[in-house]
Amino acid sequence: MAPGVEVVSLDNQGGYSINDGSSYSTAYVTGIIAEYLLNNDLKQKDDISSEVRKFLEKSSLDLETSENIVGAGIPILNK
């Protein structure tokens, strides 16, 4: 459910680099989840993780390939 290929990131020389790996996508998805939680009152929900997962799946850009390869696609904020 997260982009793990060709993620643009800051490098240690003040520029940008393109990297692969789930560790790069973790910050991306965490930021989207934080924004979602900030703008939605889920305090009364029993299963917040289920609500967040539904949001991520619904807001993801479908890459039109096997879900075994890319999951639900790339989560997009404000879709």
Euclidean distance between termini CA atoms: 15 Å
**What profile does the largest beta sheet have?**
2 strands, antiparallel
Kindly report the spatial arrangement of strands forming the biggest sheet: 1-2
Radius of gyration equals 14 Å
Tell me about this structure:
- This protein is of the alpha+beta class.
- It has one domain.
- The protein has 3 helices and 4 strands, in the order ββααβαβ.
- The strands form 2 sheets. It has a two-stranded antiparallel ribbon with strand order 1-2. It has a two-stranded antiparallel ribbon with strand order 3-4.
- Strand 1 and strand 2 form a beta hairpin.
- The longest helix is centred in the middle third of the chain and has 18 residues.
- The model has no long low-confidence stretch (mean pLDDT 80).
Descriptive tags:
Peptidase S8/S53 domain-containing protein, 3 helices, 79 residues, two-stranded antiparallel ribbon, serine-type endopeptidase activity, Peptidase_S8/S53_dom_sf
List the SSEs and their pairings:
Layout: E1 7-10, E2 16-19, H1 22-39, H2 48-59, E3 60-61, H3 67-70, E4 74-75
Brief summary of the model shown:
By secondary structure, the chain is of the alpha+beta class.
